[in-house]
From TrEMBL:
Ketoreductase domain sequence ranges: 5-201
InterPro entries: KR_dom, NAD(P)-bd_dom_sf, Peroxisomal_Beta-Oxidation, Sc_DH/Rdtase_CS, SDR_fam
The protein's name: SDR family NAD(P)-dependent oxidoreductase
One Pfam family from the record: adh_short
Family recorded in the similarity comment: Belongs to the short-chain dehydrogenases/reductases (SDR) family.
Amino acid sequence: MLMGKSVIVTGAGGGIGRDIALAMAREGAKVVVNDIGASVAGEGQDAGPAQAVVNEIKALGGEAVANTDSVSDQAGAARIVSTAVEAFGRVDVVINNAGILRDRFFHKMSAEEWDSVIKVHLYGTFYVSRAVAPHFKEQESGAFVHMTSTSGLVGNFGQANYSAAKLGITALSKSIALDMNKFNVRSNCIAPFAWSRMIGSIPTETPAEQARVDRMKQMTPAKIAPLAVCLASDAAADVNGQVFAVRNNEIFLMSQPRPIRSVQRSEGWTPQSVAAHALPALKASFFALDRSGDVFSWDPV
């Protein structure tokens, strides 16, 4: 499905990114495997993980090169794109997968924990996407697949930084889809449910949290790859600006915010009439303080 296409996969040294990179190669893509080789918290740097995935792809008979630049650095993001152009002559697909976690309850979260996660996820997605945009525009084709999360789409405890970044990515993806649709460039999101090092760092301080993590261990990163490959291919030429989720063998199309109910007063509103009429009228449609695990409450199939 991807024969001859040049694909960048960020954060591809392990977990979801690795399985996506391998799946892309199996479908004929030439792959830039980007990973700085850091810990889940973003500490340390090691070229080994990226090169190991490159070696796996070459063992399959595919073409791949390693890159260890950080997506959180604008110049580094530009070098990731340059690596693809220099190695393969062009770029056709970008999978924005790189990420870190610094989980902390909001009232305890430091500015550094906020900044570091926003920088890798949201800034990183922007930097890499912006660096490749001129190439996509010039060739009048290209596909983005960005990793979002139900932590942002629905909510979760202890992940204000991660949730904000991931919901920001969905809005960024929609803006890219709107702005670049005229150049035949597509931008979609996947919210993956998969066991990974990042999931493994989620706090499990209660039996309910432990049970949720145990369920997630059943969902391997390889389950995400088929949708990512399809969205990157010409078979998904008419799919743009969408948000999907993958949970084991289930694929979901996620909703996007739209008005669900309204109230109107021809004479306008006062604080008192809002309290007396508007809020009570709308209350039946209020959303509960759900977390991702509350919405996806059934065991994966």
